[in-house]
Each structure stands twice: as structure tokens, then as C-alpha cells.
Amino acid sequence: MNPSLSTSCSTACAIKGFFAALAIGLLGGLVGLGGAEFRLPVLVGLFGLVTLQAVIANKALSLLVVSIAIVARLHAVPLAELLPNWPVVLNLLAGSLLGAWWAAGWAMRLPRKTLDTVLLILLIFLACTMAAEQVFGLHALPDLGQVLSPASHALLGIAAGLVIGMFAAVMGVAGGELLIPTIVLLWGLDIKLAGSLSLLVSLPTMIVGFARYRESEAFAVLRTHRALLWNMAVGSLLGAVLGGLLLGVVPTDGLGLVLAAILAISAWKVFRHRQAH
């Protein structure tokens, strides 16, 4: 085991993980996010995980959350609506699986400071994307499927999947923040349907990235920090449920912009601090 890897977490640390994940899941649930992008700075900054450990831990938590979310959303978007749109899922998977496999291998070879820089850039980009979606909304996106030839449409879907798969693998996230706008933009589907389809793309994409990360010794974080991660998993799921229940009860105007700002600031503080040390 590399001595630079974080290898322990006390009971108090695990309990802190539960409440941190609960808060992230609750706030994410109020604005329709899984919260993986917020967990990453927390895993590094609050719990001291080495960057690659944090990515792998985040990936494991995201896998659990997405698996449950797929089942939970079936009451809102039943299989009868999903099945006719399998070509959308397969088109994106044609690129995302390859992107996830390659990017996970690339991330394992990067020096820690370089990976910190990459994650800082991606998190700030994601914060800007979140802010733009809050300001302009997804309804304003055009339907490119109406103007592209079938071949161009398919190739663009593969290319988009490739980029999103890379993004998701390096950050340990599901990638829904990019998948949903992509599905709306390329296929002109309803946002609720796009959300469920994005989960069907995310799950196999994350499994591929997760399998590649097994080659890294940092994968041992799932054993050494088992208590922390189980507590965070329970907190994430409970928070997401509470957030969903409070949706429409608690005012959320402007919350997405606040969360985008928090994400950018926390990413800057955590990963710039790591680079300085």
C-alpha cells in the first residue's frame, strides 16, 4: 500500500460523513441533483482522502444512488415510456463506455497535482453549467435532431457520449448534469423522460469506469474507509428522499445558483489548497 494514501477513518469521522452526505443529498434533491459533484470536495477537504481515492469512493457512492434512483423513478416514468427510447441510450453508450474506460486509466496515471488541477477545472465548469441551466432553463434548448441527418445525429450522439463518459469517470459522478441537456438538445425529449434515460446511460458507464479503477491500489479505499462510505451512502439516500419530499414545500428559487456558487468556491478552496501543499 502506498504510504501516501489515506487509510483510516474514526467512528466520529464516519458519523460526520453521514450528516455531510445527508445535507448534500437533501439540497441536491431539492434541485434535482444527485450530489456527487458536491461529495468530491467533501471527501478530499473534510475527510482527507487522496484525490484518486476520493474519485473511486465517489464513484462507488454514485453507483449505489443511481441504481436506486432508476427503480425509484419508474413510478414517474414507467418502462412503457422508456423502452421506445432505447436507441437514445444505445447511441450515447456507444461513446460513453469507451470514454469511461479510457479516462479512468488516464486518471490513474496522472500525478496527484495534475489530477487536482483537472478536477478543479471540471468542477468549476460544472458549476457554470448548473448556473446556466438555472438562469436559462433546458426548455430553451433547440432540437438538433430536426436539422441533422441520421448519420450526423448518430455520430454527434457518440461524440457527446464519449466526452460525458470521460467526464464522469474522472470525477466519479453519474454525469446527469451533462447527459440531460444533451438528450434534450439532440433528441428533443421531455426533461423528466431525459432524466430517466440519463440514469440508464449513467449506470453501465459508471460500472465500466469502476471496473477500470480496480487496477489501482487506491481502490482499497472501499475497504479501509468502509464505515465512512456506508454512512455516506445511507446519508445520501435519506437526504435525496427528504429533498424529494420537501420539493414544492420549501421555496427553492435561486437555490440552484447558490449551490453552483458553493460548488465553485469549495472546489477552488480544496483543490487549490492541495496544489499549494
From TrEMBL:
Keywords: Cell membrane, Membrane, Transmembrane, Transmembrane helix
Coiled-coil intervals, chain numbering: none
Topology class, membrane: Multi-pass membrane protein
Keyword ATP-binding: no
InterPro entries, sorted: TM_pro_TauE-like, TSUP/Inactive_protease-like
Domain of life where this protein originates: Bacteria
Name recorded for this polypeptide: Probable membrane transporter protein
